[in-house]
């Protein structure tokens, strides 16, 4: 399947947080900075549909049409996901339950997960985000026999998972990243919903 990495598109403009016209992102933010959600949608379309005719330009236009680019930096998936599902004729379930993710993948679906990044835990300890230090969308495409989830990360870099707090949590094989369900759950625990499950109708 196709893999899209937002870092390969540093000159492609994605105007977001447009509800605040004084914000720099409303005028000249780029795919490199803010388009993980658009890359994720394009990968889901490619994964689930035959000849989807839905790439990065189409993903960008849908964000503008639906207003998912307006509320904040990046893409607001509670707005974007239903618009995407309707356009691509897909079923959608928004959830924070990892078992829903597992069932979706085992029945031919594909999932966008919303990682929440670094944060302070209730006990005062600091959690280091595995897939991001801030908000970030990733795509979960399958579950391996050993129970690890296969992830396509739109901002993957060669040394991304070598940082303190991330070491040993992700196994990388080319564009494919594998992690335990507990890692995925914790990384998305401060986002509601955590997961957007898509299936063909």
Q: What characteristics describe this protein?
A:
201 residues, alpha+beta, Cathepsin B, Chain A, 7-stranded antiparallel sheet, 30% helix
Description of the molecule:
- The structure is a single chain.
- With 201 residues, this protein is α+β, with helices and mostly antiparallel strands.
- It has a single domain (6-200), classed as Cathepsin B, Chain A (Alpha-Beta Complex), CATH 3.90.70.
- Helices cover 30% and strands 20% of the residues.
- The chain contains 7 helices and 9 strands; from the N terminus they run αααααβαβββββββαβ.
- The chain has helices at residues 25-28, 31-34, 36-48, 56-66, 77-88, 98-106, 181-187, and strands at residues 90-95, 110-115, 119-120, 126-127, 136-143, 149-152, 171-173, 176-179, 195-200.
- The strands form 2 sheets. Strands 1-9-2-5-6-8-7 form a 7-stranded antiparallel sheet, with helices on both faces. It has a two-stranded antiparallel sheet with strand order 3-4.
- A hairpin with a 5-residue loop joins β5 (136-143) and β6.
- α3 packs across α4 (56-66) and α4 (56-66) crosses α5.
- It is globular.
- It starts with 24 loop residues before the first helix and ends with a strand.
- 35% of the residues are buried.
What is this entry, summarized?
By secondary structure, this protein is of the alpha+beta class. The protein has helices at residues 25-28, 31-34, 36-48, 56-66, 77-88, 98-106, 181-187, and strands at 90-95, 110-115, 119-120, 126-127, 136-143, 149-152, 171-173, 176-179, 195-200.
């Amino acid at each position: 399947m196709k893999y899209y990495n937002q870092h390969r598109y540093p000159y492609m403009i994605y105007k977001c947080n447009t509800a605040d016209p004084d914000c720099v992102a409303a005028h000249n933010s780029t795919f490199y900075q803010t388009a993980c959600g658009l890359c994720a949608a394009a990968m889901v379309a490619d994964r689930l549909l035959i000849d989807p005719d839905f790439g990065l330009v189409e993903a960008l236009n849908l964000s503008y049409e639906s207003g998912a680019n307006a509320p904040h930096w990046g893409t607001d998936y509670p707005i974007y996901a239903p618009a995407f599902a309707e356009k691509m004729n897909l079923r959608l379930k928004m959830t924070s339950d990892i078992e829903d993710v597992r069932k979706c993948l085992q029945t031919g679906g594909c999932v966008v997960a919303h990682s929440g990044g670094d944060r302070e835990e209730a006990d005062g300890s600091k959690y280091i985000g595995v897939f991001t230090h801030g908000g970030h969308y990733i795509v979960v495409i399958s579950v391996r026999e050993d129970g690890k989830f296969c992830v396509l990360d739109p901002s993957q870099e060669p040394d991304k998972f070598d940082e303190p707090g991330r070491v040993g949590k992700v196994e990388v094989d080319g564009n494919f990243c594998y992690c335990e369900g507990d890692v995925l759950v914790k990384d998305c625990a401060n986002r509601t919903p955590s997961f957007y499950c898509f299936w063909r109708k």
